[in-house]
UniProtKB/TrEMBL annotation:
GO terms for biological process: maltodextrin transmembrane transport; maltose transport. This is Sugar ABC transporter substrate-binding protein. The lineage of its organism: Bacteria, Bacillati, Actinomycetota, Actinomycetes, Micrococcales. Keywords: Signal, Transport. It comes from Subtercola boreus. PANTHER family: MALTOSE-BINDING PERIPLASMIC PROTEIN, MALTOSE_MALTODEXTRIN-BINDING PERIPLASMIC PROTEIN.
Amino acid sequence: MELNRRTFLLGAGAASLPLLLAGCGFAPPAADSTAATGTLTFTTWGTDAELAGFKAAIDRFQKANSGATVNLNAVPYGQMFTNIDAQLQAGNPPDVFRVPYYTFGSYAGRGQLLDLSTQLEQGFSDNFTPQAWAAVQNSGKPYGVPHHTDTSVILYNKDALTAAGITNIPTTLDTAWSWDEFEQVMKTLRGSLPAEKYPFAYNWQGNGVTRWLSWLFESNGRFLSEDLLTPAIDSPAGTAAVDFTKNFFTAGYVPQNNSVKSTTLAADTWYAQTSAMTSGGAFLIPDATSTLDFEWGATFSPRNERSAGDFGGNALVATAATTQPELATKFLAFMTEQEEMSQFCASASLLPTRADLIQSGIDFAVRPELSPIFVGQASSVQAQDSSQVASPNMSKIITVLQNQLEEAFVGGQSTADTLANMTSGIAAATAPA
C-alpha cells in the first residue's frame, strides 16, 4: 500500500505528548509467561517503510510463537480513526491498533483501551524513557506501549543559506540559535532571496498545530495549569510565542499560505525550493533523500528561555474488547523489544522510545549522520510541557488552537484577543460535559 505523503504529513506527524504521572515508575505484578496462542487483528496506517517494518516484525513474532497469528490491516491515514471509532461503537474493533500520542488520551479516557497494569511483566516500564512511558498512561495506569517517537528540527537548503552568507550552523542542542539569532537568520535570508521565495516554513498544518506549542514551551509557558483543566496560556510566555510567530507573516519570513489551516504543507514548500528552511520530522528523511535535487542539512530548533520540542510518533494499544488480552499484550511487548524497535526505527527514520537505544544511539538507514540531531532535539521534551497535551480534551483544544492561530496569522487578530479567545476556548473544552 502506498501512502500519500500529503495525507501522512497532515496527520501522522503531528505533535504529541509525554506525560509524567505517578505511573511513570509503574512496575505491575509479573504476568504469566505461558505462551499465548490465537489470532489478532492489527490495524494501522503507515509509509511504505513502516508497513514493511510491521510486516517483518509480525513474521518474526509468528515464528517465535508458533500458535499465534497476526492479521495486518493497513488503511489510509485519512480513514484510520473514522474506521476505528465506528468499529468501537459497533463493538467489533481490532484487537490492536496504532494511535498518535495526542489521540491516545481520548481513547484511554473513554475506557476503550485494555488496561495493561496486570498484564505486563514486572519492571516493563524500566525499558523506556520516563517521557515515553508517561505518554501511554491514564490515571496512573498504562493503556498501551510507546512504539516510537519523532520530533521536528530545522531542515535547510545548504546552497540558499551559503548564498546568504549563513555558514555558522548549530551542531549541538546547547548552541542552537536563540530566537533573536533565528530571526536574524530569517532577516538575512529575506534580504538574499527573491520576493517569490521565503526564508522559512513551519509544519503546523492540520493536527500538527500542536507543534506551535513548542514556541510556548521554549518561553517556559503553559496552556493548561497543573490541574490540566484551567487555561494558562494568557501569560507573558503566551504573548511572546504569539508575537514571535505572528511576525513570521508580517515580516514576510514565511509565505501567507504557510498558515495553520493551509492545504499547502511546509515540507512541500521546502521541496519546491520556495522556502530555504522548514521544520520537519525524521520520517521525512527517506522521501527527501530520494526526491530532492539540492544539498540539504538539519540543525536544531531555536531556543528562547530554553530548548523544547514536540513529542511526535505513535503508541500501540490493545482494545478493551479484545478476546485475546494475553496474546495482545505479548504482541505489544514483542514490538517494543530492543532489536525490534531498533530495526523498525532505523528503517523508517523514526526515534526509539527505549532508554537503552537512546543511550546507545541509533543510525537511520538513510542519512545516519542526522540521527544525533533528531535524538538530541527529542531530549529537550519536558514532561511539564507535554503532560498538558495528554488531556482527554486535547482534540477540542486542537480546534481552539487552529481557529485562533489562523486568525492571528492571517486574519489580523491581535495577540491580546488571540490569547483571550484561546483562554475561553480551552475553558469550554475542559469543562465537564
